[in-house]
Amino acid sequence: MRDDQWLREKLDKIWSEYFLDVPKTDKVIIHFSKKCRNRLGSIRLVNNTLSEIKINGFLKDPDIPEFVCEAVMAHELTHYVHGFGSSRPQLYKYPHRGGIVAREMIRRGVGHKHYAAKDWINTNWMGFYESKVHR
Ligand SMILES: [Zn+2]
């Protein structure tokens, strides 16, 4: 079952696998948030200390492949590394401009999950969403 504990363990694994040069900290928290149509994840800095990663509640659904969840977590962790939603130094002016997230994920060896998730989302997300909302 995908719950917040599952998220924490997954994040820890992704961190160890692809972000090992970045010191782990208990100042990064992750949990599921509300289900919504447009946003799969987000990260924000709370009280200038705590990085809160929120994952769209729809991603609890086993119909969504785990690599999608993993890609969303790696995406948010990339923002953290770039200093967005993070107390780390901000490395860029904007969080997404110039494809910096994808580039960083590719550089770190997690590009395959980025692209697999992107394909799955482009092909299936709206159908998934409609099927959950209109049944
Ligand atoms: Zn983003």
From TrEMBL:
Organism, scientific name: Candidatus Aquicultor secundus
The protein's name: SprT-like domain-containing protein
